[in-house]
Amino acid sequence: MPATTRVEVRRLGPMIGAEVTGVDVKRLDDAGFAAIYRAWLDSNVLVIPGQELEIGDFLHYSRRFGVVHPHPSKMTRHPDVPEITLLGVNKFGPDGALDMAIYRRGAEGWHTDGAYDAEPFKATQLYALAVPSSGGDTHFASMYAAYDGLPTRLKERLEGRLGAFTYGGRRKATALLSPEDREWTPVFHPIIRTHPETKRKALYFDPGKILRLEGLEAAESDALIEELTERMIQPGAEYRHRWRKGDIVIWDNRCSYHKAAGDYPPEEDRIHWRVSIKERPEAAARAS
């Protein structure tokens, strides 16, 4: 039977990030998980350190948040468990050259996962298997703060406006995809998005995946995308996570941006299991 868990939550940043201590996610009862889920909604990014997990444990815990989906990058999926992405594995090619697409994955700029999907990822969760001696941090920032920091003129201009998104965006950055998977049909999401659970407004934006803002001429759309790129990270609304082996970190793609630092010693390992999580069908139906 799962143990009754007393969840202790510590804030990590003034607007984003929290840590839960004294928890074994393999033994969480429903009340303990409910407290963790609430802390996650309140903080956007939740850290649970000191876990010792097998791959089945990680998947079981991840599925408590929603439906786990394989990532579009087939070449980086776990060979036996396609729902799991292996981050940081096989970063050197046969000739010994460093594959920068793997080494610097996630470090190309601030982004949110799954904006290229008609049903974007609810969450992304990582479990740290190997951590370098220095560098390799992950940065997070609040979409709520990004929206709150917009001038009124921009809020009014963006309200109700859709963005067109694809996997590679305007740069067609699809190196991690198999050649047959590199053509994407744009999907459309509101730029000002109301979180389905917290009901707070957020600036739902990803400069690396957005193609255009609907209803605008190309030059006007490009100019507005550049302005939003400059405004998306607000002072005091960031959290930088320094990884420890055994850390689980889950972030809410509906209200937070992230990027990898991409700065650790290449000869050292930085390896994570990663899952992409979507809403359960019944929750998605309620949200729509």
Characterization of this structure:
The chain is an alpha+beta fold. It has a single domain (8-287), classed as Double-stranded beta-helix (4-Layer Sandwich), CATH 3.60.130.10. It has helices at residues 30-43, 55-62, 100-103, 143-148, 152-158, 218-231, 281-287, and strands spanning 8-11, 18-21, 45-48, 67-69, 85-87, 123-130, 138-142, 162-165, 187-190, 192-194, 201-203, 210-213, 238-241, 248-252, 256-260, 271-278. The strands form four sheets. Strands 1, 2, 3, 4, 5, 6, 14 and 16 form an eight-stranded mixed β-sheet that branches. Strands 13-7-15 form a three-stranded antiparallel β-sheet. The radius of gyration is 19 Å and the shape is globular.
Radius of gyration: 19 Å
CATH superfamily: Clavaminate synthase-like
| Proportion of beta-strand residues | 15-25%
Just give the CATH class. Answer: Alpha Beta
What is the terminal separation in angstroms?
36 Å
Describe this structure in a few short sentences:
This protein is α+β, with helices and mostly antiparallel strands and 288 residues long. It contains seven helices and 16 strands.
Topology:
Blueprint: E1 8-11, E2 18-21, H1 30-43, E3 45-48, H2 55-62, E4 67-69, E5 85-87, H3 100-103, E6 123-130, E7 138-142, H4 143-148, H5 152-158, E8 162-165, E9 187-190, E10 192-194, E11 201-203, E12 210-213, H6 218-231, E13 238-241, E14 248-252, E15 256-260, E16 271-278, H7 281-287
Parallel strand pairs: 2-3
Antiparallel strand pairs: 1-2, 3-14, 4-16, 5-16, 6-14, 6-16, 7-13, 7-15, 8-9, 8-12, 10-11
